[in-house]
Amino acid sequence: MRVLVNDILYNFQRLVKRGKFQSVKIIIRDKLLTSRIKSAIATGSWVGGRRGISQNIARINFLDSMSHLGRVVSLLSATQENFEAREIHCTHWGRLCPIETPEGTPIGLRKNLAMLCQITQEDVPEDKLKKTLENLGVKLIK
């Protein structure tokens, strides 16, 4: 945003000095913000020196690509000794793979989705979900 504001100020001052102020569309370059975001996503280098926000997908083979797409990265630093964030929890069953994690300092902070895990965006009505859980043998507390 700072680059966009500075660009607007520069263009406005330049046009005022020349006396050629015609419209606001000349002052604001509409592609500036879009091109900066696309560049940050493509290169992985963001404002403020942040790295790792976006990365190129590994296309070595199909399994590597699938593993890359299923990667879940924690925002915690590898130097922090947060053991609770690194360990597997019973709620991860069927969602996160308990085996596939790197060795060394980032162990447990970089997790992967389980092989048969699916992420859906479907809205399921609550009564239908309760009925499905009851059919699976889950006893609901009322």
What does it look like?
A two-stranded antiparallel sheet has the order 1-2. It is elongated, with a radius of gyration of 24 Å. Helix content is 39%, strand content 4%. The protein has six helices and two strands; from the N terminus they run H-H-H-H-E-H-E-H. It has helices spanning 2-18, 24-27, 32-43, 62-69, 83-86, 126-135; strands at residues 71-73, 110-112. The protein starts with a helix and ends in a 7-residue tail after the last helix. Among the domains are: 2-49, no CATH class; 62-112, no CATH class. It has 142 residues and is mainly alpha-helical.
Give the integer mean of the pLDDT values. Answer: 78
Per DSSP, the total helix count is 6
- SSE string: HHHHEHEH
- Determine the fraction of residues in helical runs and give it as a percent range: 25-40%
- Describe the main β-sheet briefly: 2 strands, antiparallel
Q: How far is the N terminus from the C terminus?
A: 51 Å
Radius of gyration: 24 Å
Strand content: under 5%
Structural class: mainly alpha
Q: Please provide the count of β strands.
A: 2
Strand order of the largest sheet: 1-2
Overall 3D form: elongated
Q: Which residues form runs of ≥5 with pLDDT under 50?
A: none
Short description:
The protein has 142 residues and is mainly alpha-helical. It has helices spanning 2-18, 24-27, 32-43, 62-69, 83-86, 126-135, and strands at residues 71-73, 110-112.
Keywords:
4% strand, two-stranded antiparallel sheet, mainly alpha, 39% helix, 142 residues, 6 helices
